[in-house]
Design goal:
The protein is built from eleven helices and 34 strands. The protein is α/β, with parallel strands linked by helices. It has four domains: 3-78 and 533-571, no CATH class; 85-200 and 499-525, Rossmann fold; 204-290 and 491-497, Sandwich (Immunoglobulin-like); 292-448, Rossmann fold, CATH 3.40.50. The strands form nine sheets. The chain has a nine-stranded mixed beta sheet with strand order 18-17-19-20-25-24-23-21-22, covered by helices on one side. It has a six-stranded mixed beta sheet with strand order 7-6-3-8-9-31, sandwiched between helices. α1 (16-26) runs antiparallel to α3. The chain starts with a strand and ends with a strand.
């Protein structure tokens, strides 16, 4: 059993041993003895001093033994038994881990490393690191169950939050070893070891696919060291629409735009990558433009014209718009926005009897809702009787007047998306400007991109799209949700398509790479567990006291009686 110390700082007391040796030979005992002449004693003393050398004695041994035992007792030694450490194995499940390098698929290499680590551990837990961290197997001694879970692991998420996975692992067992298997840079931590399984795979993939107004945009990325020409084909609901070729520069991004007469339906973009392409997950991408329904409470001509100008939107007018199911509800004079049911809303204020006209002097140009929207010097009529808005409570101010009074704001919270105007459409010149249709189009675009809207844009692989069953998709495509809706899934990640390459070790922390990671010894790290109830400190203290008593007896001259002498201590 190895020995450990509960207070190792007291081991510095062992430095007193050389001092004991020095003091032992400095001090001397003088005895008074009657002699016939002193010159012979002086001469003998001089000869002895010339020949004097350090020689061990029983007295010195007792002194050294006392000092050493006292220091060890203060350090509180404990017997410890070598045990296999608890491990939490984190496996990167991002899409790049599905890439095939010259030395094998990255996920297969990760499985091999994880299998070896499991073999040299005590209790083991398995965590899958994707868009979120999922505990696949809790801490257990059933290595067979952990190995079966490792064999079932799949990769495909748009990204892997390794820091989140490490935080989950620390919450499972703060004292366990954490082993991260990834193709990303090493994760630094006090008990974290990183195994790098990245390789030198060459990949070409779709990094962006988006539908605009009567056009489709396709971006293609490559990590190749030479330019690549990539054929691109576009289909809608399975029928061919357009095709072309993209020239991707060295390590760069190429793009192509296809004109479209109608953006309704499910569109699929596919590339024909060069032979030996490392990753298939980014060779296809999906986008959809489902027909949206907008219900307007009051038939305002400006609002109806702006909605009609947006492709893929069916507009209806109904005084009970707040109660009718729709993708977007346009209400006038609505009360508290916090009382609205989940959904998307455009709220206007009721017409003011005596409006106070103000000029918009500032607006948020960085907001997606304000793209192509110019509100400079727009005149709005505000109702003096209505209290002015205040910032906070999750609201984002999009436009304000010269006195910093908000007149347009947006909030997306708890499933309710609200764009609210502090004015009525009939009391502003905004509806006469080109910025108003652009504002409405941007709002529809945001509604269409919401994950809760079926076919409302592509979700990243690994996203949970059903809260009850925790369903998630890892392959690009069109999926039916348990509630009868549909979603589209596309990778669309330049980072993943570029395939994170071999990484250097972090400062002071080497990382196993490639084949070396697959051959990493499972028993490279061991742990110790203190054996409870071991009174080593007390035993050492008793021995130290015994050594001190023996030293005193030898120094004072007390000796054991010889055979035939009386049984009593006597001094020399």
């Amino acid at each position: 059993m190895p020995l450990s110390f509960a207070a190792p700082e007291f081991l510095w007391a062992l430095l007193a041993l050389p001092l004991v040796v020095l003091l032992h030979f400095v001090r001397s005992r003088r005895r008074r003895t009657e002699v016939s002449a002193l010159f012979l004693w002086r001469r003998a003393r001089q000869v002895a001093e010339r020949r004097r050398r350090i020689a061990p004695t029983w007295l010195l041994l007792a002194q050294l033994l006392f000092a050493a035992l006292a220091a060890l007792a203060l350090a509180r030694p404990q017997l410890a038994a070598a045990v296999a450490p608890d491990r939490i194995v984190i496996v990167d499940a991002s899409a790049s881990m599905a890439a095939r390098d010259p030395d094998g698929v990255r996920l297969d290499k990760a499985r091999a490393v994880a299998d070896r680590l499991v073999g040299g551990a005590g209790r083991v837990a398995l965590v899958r690191a994707g868009l979120d961290a999922r505990v696949i197997v809790a801490l257990t001694t059933d290595r067979a169950a952990v190995r079966r879970a490792i064999a079932r692991l799949t990769a495909g998420d748009r990204s892997a939050d390794l820091q989140r996975a490490v935080s989950v692992a620390e919450a499972i067992d703060p004292a366990a070893r954490i082993d991260v298997i990834t193709d990303q840079p090493p994760v630094v931590g006090p008990r974290v070891s990183t195994f790098d399984v990245a390789g030198a795979g060459v990949n070409v993939g779709i990094s962006a696919f988006d539908l605009g107004i009567q056009e489709a945009y396709v971006g293609v990325v490559s990590n190749s060291r030479r330019p690549v020409q990539v054929p691109v084909a576009l289909t809608r609901d399975g029928a061919a629409v357009a095709s072309g070729t993209v020239l991707v520069p060295v390590g760069g991004v190429g793009s192509i735009t296809f004109p479209l007469a109608d953006v309704k339906g499910t569109y699929r973009a596919a590339i024909s990558p060069p032979e030996g392409d490392a990753l298939a997950l980014d060779d296809v991408a999906y986008a959809g433009a489902r027909q949206l329904t907008a219900v307007v409470e009051q038939a305002d001509s400006a609002v109806l014209k702006a909605l009609d100008a947006v492709p893929g939107v069916t507009v209806r007018v109904n005084p009970r718009a707040a109660e009718i199911p729709a993708d977007l509800r346009v209400l006038t004079g609505a009360g508290d926005p916090g009382a609205l049911a989940p959904g998307a809303y455009l709220l206007f204020a009721p017409a003011a009897a005596k409006p106070d006209y103000r000029v918009v002097t500032a607006y948020d140009r960085a907001s997606p809702l304000m793209r192509f929207v110019d509100l400079q010097d727009v005149v709005v009529g505000l109702d003096p009787a209505r209290p002015a808005w205040t910032s906070g409570d999750g609201w984002q101010v999009l436009a304000s007047t010269a006195d910093l009074q908000p007149v347009l704001r947006y909030r997306d919270a708890e499933g309710v998306r609200v764009l609210q105007a502090a004015f009525n459409p009939g009391q502003t010149d905004l509806v006469l400007r080109a910025g108003f249709p652009a504002l409405i189009a941007n709002l529809v675009r945001e509604v269409r991109a919401a994950p809760a809207v079926p076919m409302g844009g592509a979700l990243p692989p690994g996203t949970t799209f059903d809260g009850a069953s925790q369903s998630y998709a890892l392959r690009p495509g069109a999926y039916r949700t348990p509630n009868g809706g549909s979603i589209l899934v596309s990778l669309d990640s330049e980072t993943q398509s570029r395939l994170p390459g071999p990484t250097a070790a972090s400062a002071g922390q080497p990382a196993a790479t490639g084949a070396a990671a697959a051959a990493a010894p499972a028993a490279a790290r061991t742990a110790v567990r203190a054996v409870p109830g071991t009174p080593l400190a007390a035993l050492l203290l008793v021995l130290a006291v015994a050594a001190l008593v023996a030293e005193w007896l030898m120094w004072s001259g007390v000796k054991w009686p010889r055979r035939g002498e009386p049984r009593a201590w006597r001094r020399r």
